[in-house]
Structure formats: structure tokens, C-alpha cells
Amino acid sequence: MVATKLTTLMKKCSTVKHAKQIHAQIITNNLTHLEPIFIHRILLCDITNYKTISNYILSILHHLRNPDSFSWGCVIRFFSQKGQFVEAVSLYVQMRRIGLCPSSHAVSSILKSCARVEDDLCGLLIHGHVHKFGFDACVYVQTALLDLYCKIGDVVTARKVFDEMPDKNVVSWNSLLSGYIKGGNLDEGQRFFDEIPLKDVISWNCMVSGYAKAGKMDRACYLFQQMPERNFASWNTMITGYVDCGSIVEARELFDAMPRRNSVSLITMIAGYSKSGDVHSARELFDQMDDKDLLSYNAMIACYAQSSKPKEALDLFNVMLKPDSSLHPDKMTLASVISACSQLGNLEHWRWIESQINNFGIVLDDHLATALIDLYAKCGSIDKAYELFHGLRKRDVVAYSAMIYGCGINGRASDAVELFERMAGECIIPNLVTYTGILTAYNHAGLAEEGYRCFISMKDNGIVPSVDHYGIMVDLLGRAGWLDEAYKLIMKMPMQPNVGVWGALLLACRLHDNLKLGEIAVQHCIKLESETAGYYSLLSGIYATVGKWNDAKKLTTGVEGKKIIKIPGCSWTQLV
DNA sequence: CTAGGGTTAG
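Output (C-alpha cells, whole complex):
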């Protein structure tokens, strides 16, 4: 019997090529009545190339002589499961236009799609269909409905749906539990969790995840230990929890204690090490991965970019692009790569990045555009940066900060101030980075008084200046010749001044030939950093200017070479 | 229904 044989083959089918062969045989044997079943089977295929298979599935659907509710339902479920939610919704609309009644597959899938894109309007419309087409007793549809209400934040209605369900399975319980947890209602969640008649591993994971996300690791750990069974997600949730509250050591202990690890475990640890600044350990784990996927590369490249290692980030990006790797970079990859490029501040990278974006068909979103704004601004093309900035869908604190800093380093202080004020007008609270930008702008323009006023106003926004902000201020006051004020500011610092702060004062002393403060500054500089040649050179410069030739000579004897120190708020300054 | 990734400074 050909039909039986083909059905068996379809069950085993796992590639597009194979599916097409079977499909051809169905056509030649005139077995088109099998096609709805065929679609159902192919949906079970585990095929990695979603794009190709999506188009193929659609072409089958459109070539069916009589596509019925079942066929449509299968296809809609396929798109929903593959994360193509918008496509799924559009297919549902098409199906309704033909006048077909939706199957339970179609309705539950479309509810899931609405939930994922948080489209409450479409969701409410489908809620009507649930009654209209008689799915009040279908546990799948009802569960999808209650999950939709959880996802759009309406737990009360979700509870109502739940209470009216004639049948409930563990997924229904878990969905509502997840709704309570997501809404931050841990106590209510715990009470509900205790009521679940047959808890599965997901019920437990959900509860553990709730405590972990709230930073209550003690409670999460207590539950974790009581779990009757654990899967990858259980362990990975705990690791994420420890990483998020900065306990990288505990995270690692758990990671090592896992009976088996998957790529999520490794990526979570890599991101954790990245956050704690341990690039070496991150790379060690990355190298241990057998099959590195896109997300592993993204995590490692991001780690380098965030740890001021742009060169390494770009090197790894190039490894990823090797012809045999078949990995296709996405927005996440490019965001880190752009960040790396702008750290290098090299104009050549600009064109290269643009070609990469085009090559890989990456569509700019606000995140990526913000990274590009930074790149353009650092390359001195403030107009291009502005162009992108105006094109943003939503301008957040990061975008404003990048733009303000960009104006600052390009000597456009008035633009920076205007942006800063417009930002306040939009009720966006500036953060530490924003103040670094605006103070840098004042510094570059030599606007000491305005800069100082801005610095003082930081506390109005509840921002505590960091040591770097003090560095910029000392530089700003010092360059303006207000050396005593700069020194007083250092004395009032609530934290230990670093070499950047004292270096800025020393530089200002050289600029204005202030020997008294210069000697103090240089003492602190050499105490904080043993490489002292540059500091002594500066001091000897002051001695020379004020005519103390002997002191100058004493200092310069044995001192050779140049020293580069970093003064926050200004560019790399080479001191001779 | 549970677990992993991006942008601003230094």
C-alpha cells in the first residue's frame, strides 16, 4: 500500500529535501487526500532552516486543492511554534477571509502569538472567537487564553478564565502560576503553587525562578533542593539568579555541580564572568564549548566589547565569519561589534561596519542605531550621528548620553547642553554616563562656571558623582586656573582620589606654573603609580619655568622616555 | 508553562 508506506516515510522525514521527495511521490500517486496529514507530519520535522521550510509549507498550503480548517490550523501552529507570530496572525486573518472556521489548533496558536507580541487588541478579538466557535471546553484553547491574559498583565481575568475551565491540566496551573510570578506577586504565587495537585518540573522551575529573579536566593535554593526532579532549566535558573546578584562564585559552584551542562549554562556563566570583569574565565568556558552557536559567539564578543577589549571582540567576530562556520551574525552580534569599533575610534571601521550591516541584511533598531551614533560621533561625524538620533523611534537615556558625549568631544558644548535640557523636558533622568558626557562638553569648551554648577546639580537627580566625574571637574577647574578650588574639591572627595584626579591637577599646575600644588600632586601620583617619568617631567617643567633650575635638573636626571597618562574627560594626553 | 545574548563613560 503506497499510502501507508508514504505515511511511514513522512514520520521519519527530517529535511526539506526529503520532504520534497515525499511530496513529489504523493503528487505522482495522486494521493492528494493525504496532504492535510502530510502538512501535519512535516510540522513535526526538526528542521533547522526555518526560512526555507516556512516558504515551502506556505507553497504546499496554497497548492492544496481544498485546504480545510485542519490544514490551516497545522500551518498556523507551525508559524506560531517557530516564533513567526506576525505571520501566524496574518494567516489566521486570511483563513477567516475565506470563511473557514478555525480549528482548536488555529485558535490556541493565534492566542499564543498574540500573547508573545503582547497584542491585547487582537487577543480580545480572538477571545470572542473562542466562544463563537465553541471552544469553551477545550483545555488547550482555554489555557492559551488564560496565558494571554497573564502575558498582557491582566491576572484577574486570567484567574476568571482559570476558575471557569471545566478541565485543567498542569499547563493551565503553570500558566497562571507564571502570571502571578511575572506580576511580582510571590506570596500569592507560593500559595497557588502549594495548591497545584500534580506539580511537574516546570511548576517548580517557575517558583524557583520567581524567587531567583527577586534576588531571594536563599528561598530559591531551599526549593531547588526539594525538587523531585531537575532539568537544565532548573539548574540554569539558579545560576542566572546567582549571576544577577553578583555571586559569581556561587554560580560557578552550581555550574560545576551540574550533572550535565548545556549551552545555556555556559552562556550564562560567560555573561556572568563578563559582568564581574573576569574575561579570562569567560574565554576559558567559551573554548570548552563543543558546538558554538550564534548565542555563544554573541556572549563572548559582548564580553570583550564590554571589557574594553575591542581588538579581541573584532578578532572573534572574524573567526565567527570564517567560511566553514555557517554562522549568520544578527543584531546582537553587530551591536557589540559596533561598540568595539567605536572604542577603537578608527575611521576605517565605519565603512566596514556599514558593509557588514548590508551584507547580513541587518535591519537597524534603536539599540543598534544608538551604537552607531556613538561610532559616528567618535569618528567626528556629528551630523551623521544627529541624523540617526532624529530617526530613533524612542530616544532613551542611552541614546541621549551617547549624543551628548559625542557633542562634547566634538567641541559642540551648546548642542550638548541643548540635548541635556531637552532630555530633562522629556522626563528622562540622566545617569552617571550622561553626566560624564555633559561635563566633558563643558570641559572641552572651557566653561568652568557652568560645568561646576552642573556638577553640583548632580545630587538633585540623586546621582552620586564617581571618581571619574571628580577627575573631569579637577581638570575643568584646573585648566581655568582655579587651582585652589580644584585642590579643595579633591580634599572634599568622599572616595580616594585616583591617579587621574591627581594627574589632572598636576597638568593644571604645569599649565599655570603652580609649584606648591604641583609638588603635592606629583607626590600622590607617584604613590599611586610607580611609572613616574611623566609626572617628574611635568614637575620639572614647573621648576624650570619658575627658575628653580637645580631642582629641575635633579628631577630630570635618570628620567627618560615618555609617559602617557589618562585624564578623564579629555583625550589621551601625551606628556613630555 | 521554566533557563541564555545587544547600545552610552572609564
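Confidence is low (pLDDT under 50) at residues 558-576 of chain A.
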